[in-house]
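Fold sample X.
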Amino acid sequence: MKIRVLQVGPIGTNCYLLEDEDSHTAAVVDPGDEADRILAQAKADGVEIQSILLTHAHYDHTTGVAGLLKALPNIPVYLHPADIARLGSQVFPPLGTEPTPYDDGDVVKVGGIDVQVLHTPGHTPGGVCLMAGEALFTGDTLFQGSMGRIDFEGGSYEDIGTAGSYSPSSTSKCMETISSASVSVTCTTAASSSCSAFSSWLLFHA
């Protein structure tokens, strides 16, 4: 398994190519913009993109979807149903396709890699984290040393930070996942930064 990190769009949102080196296939996690650059990187890495996995549906994580689908019209775009229901606004723009829903406990295959879905609402109602091998893609559920913002449409402090309507809280769920894993790697927000607070798991987020 190989993970390629790209900072895309005007605010440098992290986009990832999750690559299975055995099958030469990949999934794009959170294509926030610059579809042509993502496609060029996949070609340079010798992998075929098979799916798009969205941690949530905010525009800075989805703007590149349309361009990827123009080049790869038959690949599925995975998104939690609670965010699918919000598509159509400025913050949750349309994707240009009917997403494939996934939910807590589902597993998506990327070649030989199993990607487990953890529903972690709070930043958005349909926010998810994606666990693949020794990597946890947290989207905007976790930020470096903190949790995701909750001041956008659909945000909920009760869900992300406390045992409110969603129990356990999303941050607790992430930390329980991290603490149950017997790995020792680092957390990153960008290629050059680390997050010692979560050093027992490899976290990828925006």
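Fold sample Y, listed below.
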Amino acid sequence: MSDTQNPIEIERKFTLKNDNWKAWSYKTIEMVQGYFTGDTCPVTFDGLHLRIGQFTIKPEEHFVNILPELLVTGTENISPQLCAVRIRSENGLYKLTIKKRIDSNSCHEMEYLIPEGIGRYHLERTDCKLLKTRYLVGIGNNKTAEVDVYHGENSNMPNTAEVEFINQETADSFETPAWFDKELTGMSEFSCKALAETPYNARQK
């Protein structure tokens, strides 16, 4: 999600029946996602600004009202126990993302580009990581499916597709392409954070 998009992320997630999606793929992004999972992380909020290392971010007003709920009590530290805190590299660009779940298919999402040096430094120090290749796939009606192919310790995880929506009505009325299969929306064990913490390959042993 870009900084200017809807601060509420609404999406549905599916496994795939086959590789027919490749015919409509128009962009490829190599990703490494690292998550902080301990009691604290290096991201702070002082009431006005988010900070990671020496980099300062001015969050939108919507998020200024939410961020105090995500702090470790009595500190300015964001708590990974209250939200998902992620550093992601995307073809060499680095992003800080904070997600706070609302319900099964929506969340508050704060996402910001951060300098490469800071991003690389903190990504290396995250507690767990997920490697994947993302393909952007046109599915008609001006919609895009984000198809993820997993690597490393999640190489046996079935490919998945996520589709984002502008509101709940369009999410509910979405007609899936023929190559979509089982819906994983709301199944927390298949979230990216859960796959980073407990890789799919290890679950099969």
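Sample Y note: Residues 1-5 have pLDDT under 50 and may be disordered.
Also: The two ends are 35 Å apart (CA to CA).
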